[in-house]
Specification:
Number of helices: 14
Structural class: alpha/beta
Distance between the termini: 26 Å
CATH class of the largest domain: Alpha Beta
Shape: globular
Oligomer: single chain
Strand content: 15-25%
Helix content: 25-40%
Number of domains: 2
CATH superfamily of the largest domain: Alkaline Phosphatase, subunit A
Length: 462
């Protein structure tokens, strides 16, 4: 990638005054595939299900990295974290490369005459490099009734807009010292009827069944219901402004659920998120089997806005063709990665999948180990006694991974059986190893250089 600064110059007034497509970009914090439109039966998500039926629902969508700041950095830049510099959380001392800071979604749209706004978290550094006309922070967006009125006031104003609304749910809430992590079963009466803990609320990709885990998973699902309510109120506000017919709306999760083997991993439960698109005049309502990534968000939004791409090569592609035509040609493989969550540990991973198989490459297997804890989840230590044998083995692989993991997602969607050493799947292993290497070379992955790995491993927290 050629590194150069992206300077700002206003477009001619005539171009700015043309009727432009607005953009409403909605994210949920830590939302996995727990919506009715994705097959969830334990809770109801009527607003999101209705929206999905009106637009395009992508069956298989990956975040770039299953950690908040790196994930969001990829959305803002159209580049994987390995190329944009946000390798871990903002509070871990990571930040976008300087030459990319002018080429984020709000900055590119601001230059093109858009009003730009954000409600809720940003969490990509340096935050002061983002050009917002309106920034609402300090509000707890779990209080979903407060979000839509703020958004509506922004949406009503004249001129084309880009508004990003970031709901806190279903992220775990932390309080006290030491921090106690939990999911509020209800906030200000939402949801009205919280789901009760039971054996049915335990996640199939963990299968750790005890009282604490039942409560944790049930209340996570209650937080998803709260997000659905918030989206319903927000979309109703957009309708009241009369601008829904001119507004591209994208709804995603920023990564999977904050449970062991989910968030901060490259397992499907960490990488896969809901990805819903309604693009008036372009999208045709359907369910798409196309592999999409959050690096596709920036080029899609710029395409909708009629704004040119930045000068460097992007890793994503506009979704215009695939939301319009289900038969459009698209990518064969879908890739993702991991570096850091907080300031440590450094445990780099790369992953790639096709329509059946999934390959994980643990770059430092044997010389380092990943973190096994996330946001207070105790599933890993409790799996030794509270999970069946196949789940216990999967947790052991999670805690001490081999260099390669290969999964047959048709037969084993929860990735419990590593087939990397199975001769019967050797051809799939070799094919995906080749595809992964090609993707890493194409995207100029710095981790191909051993000195980069050494530098990152020796990095001291900022």
């Amino acid at each position: 990638m050629t590194r150069r600064s992206f300077l700002f110059a206003p477009l001619p007034l005539a171009a700015q005054r043309q009727r432009r497509t607005n953009v409403l970009f909605i994210t949920a914090d830590d939302l996995g595939l727990y919506l009715g439109c994705y097959g969830e039966k334990r809770i109801a998500t009527p607003h999101l299900d209705k929206f999905a039926a009106e637009g395009v629902r992508f069956r298989t969508a990956y975040v770039a990295q299953a950690s908040c700041s790196p994930s969001r950095s990829a959305m803002f830049t159209g580049l994987m974290p390995h190329a944009n510099g946000q390798y871990g959380l903002a509070n871990g001392g990571f930040k976008l490369h300087e030459e990319l800071r002018g080429a984020t979604i709000p900055n590119l749209l601001k230059r093109a005459g858009y009003r730009t706004g954000i409600i809720g978290k940003l969490h990509v550094e340096p935050e002061d490099s983002f050009r917002w006309d309106y920034r609402q922070k300090g509000n707890e967006t779990r209080r979903v009734r407060t979000v839509a009125p703020q958004a509506e006031a922004f949406l009503k104003q004249d001129g084309p807009f880009f508004l990003m609304v970031n709901f806190s749910d279903p992220h775990a809430f932390a309080k006290g010292q030491p921090r106690e992590w939990y999911f509020p079963p209800e906030v200000e009466g939402i949801p009205e009827k919280p789901l009760a803990p039971s054996a049915e609320t335990v996640f199939d990709w963990q299968r750790v069944d005890n009282t604490a885990q039942r409560e944790r998973t049930a209340n996570y699902l209650n937080a998803v219901q709260r997000f659905d309510t918030g989206v319903g109120l927000l979309l109703a506000a957009l309708e009241r402004t009369g601008k829904a017919g001119d507004t591209l709306v994208i709804i995603i999760g920023d990564h999977g659920a904050p449970f062991a083997r989910g968030k901060t991993t490259v397992y499907e439960s960490g990488l896969r998120v809901p990805f819903l698109v309604r693009w008036p005049g372009v999208s045709r309502p359907h369910v798409s089997d196309k592999f999409v990534s959050t690096v596709d968000i920036l080029p899609t939004i710029l395409d909708a806005a009629g704004v040119g791409l930045p000068p460097h090569k992007l890793h994503g592609t506009s979704l215009r063709g695939v939301v319009r035509d289900p038969r459009a040609k698209w990518r064969e493989y879908l890739a993702a990665e991991f570096h850091f969550h907080g300031a440590k540990p450094f445990y780099p991973r790369r992953a790639i999948r096709d329509s059946r198989y999934k390959l994980i490459h643990n770059l430092l297997a044997g010389s380092a180990k990943p973190s096994t804890g996330i946001d207070g989840d105790t599933a890993f230590p409790r799996s030794a006694t509270d999970a069946p044998a196949d789940a216990r083995q999967a947790f052991q692989t999670f805690a001490n991974p081999p260099e390669y993991e290969l999964y047959d997602l048709d037969a084993d969607p929860v990735e419990f059986r590593n087939l990397a050493g199975d001769p019967g799947h050797a051809a799939a292993l070799r094919r995906l190893q080749g595809a992964l290497l090609a993707w890493r070379k194409k995207t100029q992955d710095p981790a191909l250089d051993p000195s980069f790995l050494e530098k990152m491993a020796a990095r001291q927290p900022a």
